[in-house]
Specification:
This protein is an alpha+beta fold. It is built from 16 helices and 16 strands. The protein is about 35% helix and about 10% strand. Strands 6-9-16-10 form a 4-stranded antiparallel sheet. Strands 14-13-11-15 form a 4-stranded mixed sheet.
Length: about 575
């Protein structure tokens, strides 16, 4: 079996000659064995660490073509450029040094990925959603788990790559010595909180994997401060447990309340059990809103009392008809109640059934709706395929079972107890935008096709002229099985009712100029939902109506999603 420092069989005559690592890997024609890859990588890391200690270079070119191998000498790193500190009139700033060290450590991780898998790290491209289409080009691209390409890669190599290429400061190696500490550890490798081993054959199976038991169901309320859901990280491409990273951080020092607002914030923290005080501008706005609401209630109560006892209007006020109530009753009296249809057979499919949609041009938005539905502008879309139904409990459960993701929390519907497990063909609820996006990623990897959430334009394009289904008037206080309300002319169900549906776009104002395949704003704080639901009656149920919500929160009991399969 060839080693990392022995010449390949077809180049024995060049054994005495120096060669760069790129030529050697090309001649070798296969990934290096784990032991040889680690041994070669250790030598390169020691050289780079020595250069950093001597301030020899920071942030220079570190590629396989610049690493020279020979049979009788350790590897050498050549042609890394002239240090900027010797070319410039002044020494580099600490920020420039830190940036250079980060680039060097990242390139070491990319190099180890190539040694372990036999191929360069994939380029940074947006494949599953639109969030990364606008990423800063100066950011170092994430490196995926090498075991997805070569399952025999050792856990130690995967940990090293994750440590070197993580994009957040808490998870990333700060200096080359951090990599050496993991490489030269005499016992078991250091456990990193941000890495799991989804495909490694060397790690023992957990009891749930061997017995086929379902994942443990969370019974506590999910909040932004106590999230434990594993998600696909955009920083490293690995599965990240955000709660574990948070537990690794030092706890904040307790401070005594210094004022009335700070005292209220401390009381909220004590009641919630999270220990985090809700401070900042948002908390002050919340207090101002609650104070205004309390003042309004007191004012209304005072007005009613004054009308009844001081103005003598108690009898006539009680008997006066509510004109607005009568008008609403007259509008709904002519609308017949919806009778459930027999569910189609394909609503129980393992993967979401799709409907092919021919692209075209349409007028998006409305002049008769809310201000955020304007201006109306011309939008052109390409062909795409969209889910015939909303994603069901059974389809989302298959995703949770395959990835060991916790099930959504119980929504506590009065008529639908144990909703997630006992109603498999109902739409899944209590999923965040991050959860829905992670499902699309898993479905893409499982099927080999490219799945994602629909854009606002795609959703509104197929929702035009759709009949109103399970809204607050028809639903009876709970969502219904998908496919039991009348479809639109394209054969797509539940666009107007049942659950609100996540879209890919960040929420924001519409542009006025015509667009082709718009993807929304590049940045934002809330994601868009479309379609109204079984619960809400304050938002009009029409194709142009928009709603927004925090993409990280998953406690909303009337929000779900459907998928789009994009053309490659």
């Amino acid at each position: 079996m060839p080693t990392a420092l022995d010449p390949p069989p077809d180049t024995l005559e060049t054994a005495a000659m120096n060669r760069n690592l790129g030529d050697y890997l090309k001649a070798y024609g296969a990934p290096l064995p784990n032991e040889e890859a680690l041994e070669l990588f250790l030598g390169i890391v020691r050289i780079v660490g020595g250069m950093h200690d001597q301030c020899a270079f920071y942030g220079r070119e570190l590629r396989v073509e610049n690493i020279i191998l020979s049979a009788d000498r350790p590897p050498r790193v050549l042609d890394c450029g002239i240090p900027q500190s010797r070319l410039a009139a002044k020494s580099p700033t600490p920020e420039e040094v830190a940036q250079g060290i980060r680039q060097d450590i990242h390139r070491l991780g990319v190099l180890l990925y190539q040694l372990a898998t036999g191929r360069p790290a994939p380029e940074h491209r947006s494949t599953y959603n639109f969030r990364t289409d606008f990423d800063d080009a100066a950011e170092l691209p994430p490196v995926p788990d090498p075991r997805a390409v070569r399952p025999s890669v050792s856990v130690e190599i995967a940990r090293l790559i994750a440590l070197a290429t993580a994009r957040d400061e808490q998870s990333r190696a700060k200096r080359v010595s951090d990599l050496l500490a993991l490489l030269e550890a005499p016992s078991e490798p250091v456990a990193l909180p941000f890495l799991s081993a989804p495909v490694a054959a060397t790690e023992p199976a957990t009891p749930a994997e061997t017995t086929g038991a379902a994942p443990v169901r969370r019974e506590t309320r999910a909040t932004a401060a106590r999230r434990t859901l594993p998600v696909i990280s955009e920083r490293t491409g690995f599965v990240v447990n955000e709660a574990a990273l948070k537990r690794a951080a030092p706890p904040p020092e307790p401070t005594a309340p210094t004022g009335f607002i700070d005292g209220l914030a401390q009381a909220f923290a004590d009641l919630s059990g999270t220990g985090e005080k809700p401070t900042g501008k948002g908390f002050r706005i919340f207090l101002a809103g609650m104070s205004s609401l309390l003042l309004l209630v007191v004012s209304l109560a005072t007005y009613r009392l004054a009308t009844k006892f001081l103005l003598g209007g108690g009898q006539s006020t009680a008997s006066r008809p509510n004109i607005e109530a009568l008008r609403q009753e007259s509008a709904t009296a002519s609308r017949p109640k919806l009778t459930p249809l027999s569910p189609p057979a394909d609503n129980a499919a393992l993967f979401p059934p799709l409907v092919a949609v021919k692209g075209g041009t349409f007028e998006m938005g409305s002049l008769d709706g809310q201000p955020d539905e304007q201006p109306v502008r011309r939008v052109t879309l390409s062909d795409f395929e969209i889910g015939k139904y909303e994603v069901t409990n059974a389809q989302y459960k298959a995703f949770c079972d395959a990835t060991r993701r916790p099930y959504p929390e119980e929504p506590n519907f009065a008529r639908l107890r144990n909703y997630f497990l006992d109603y498999p063909n109902h739409p899944v609820v209590r999923v965040s935008w991050d959860d829905a996006n992670a499902y699309c990623i898993w479905l893409s990897e499982r099927t080999g096709d490219l799945y994602r959430l629909p854009t606002e334009a795609e959703w509104e394009y197929v929702a035009r002229n759709s009949p109103i289904g399970w809204d607050s008037y028809n639903s009876g206080g709970a969502p219904h099985e998908v496919g039991t309300s009348p479809p639109n002319e394209l054969g797509i169900y539940d666009l107007m009712g049942n659950v609100w549906e996540w879209c890919a776009d960040w929420y924001g104002p519409y542009p006025s100029e015509p667009q082709t395949n718009p993807k929304g704003l590049p940045r934002g704080t809330h994601k868009v939902l479309r379609g109204c639901s079984w619960y809400f009656s304050t938002v009009p149920c029409r194709p142009t109506a928009r709603f927004r919500f925090d993409p990280t929160l998953n406690y909303w009991f009337n929000g779900g999603f459907r998928v789009v399969r994009a053309k490659r």
